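Researcher: I'd like a structural prediction for the single chain below. Treat it as a standalone chain; there are no partners to consider.
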Amino acid sequence: EGASAAAHALSLPAEAYGNDPRLEAMWAIKASDHAEVYFNLISSVDPKFLKLTKVDDKLYTLFRESFKDLDIKLLKTEDLKSDEAKGRWRPFCNQFEGIVEDFNYGTLLRLDTEKEYTEENTIFTRVQFYAIEIARNREGLNDKVFKSKSNR
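Model: Treating it as a single chain, here is the predicted structure.
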């Protein structure tokens, strides 16, 4: 019953809540659970075979056209959160509204691909997670996690 109520609460528009700390805590828990599941996934399945959305090819192509010089192996907070970065990311992300199912879902992203999720190595993102992780998987940057966790 509690999980059902939380799921319903998270499906309502943000305007319905303001800055309700209980809702922020629910989002944090959901984002943390997603991060754990994703890390376990790239640890146990060869990342190059993963499909994260129905439009992975389009996400990857448009991401690399828009952010061809972005170092996705070792991101910096300002790559995603500076005013300049937000100005570049906003139009990129908005083109996937209604196309990517979890377009606006808050997700934790590792800054350094060679490290696990930690407070220092994590940033909160939305659809950028999919674009960056699809690129990391296709470009072999998550292979080290897979190989170290699967002893291959």
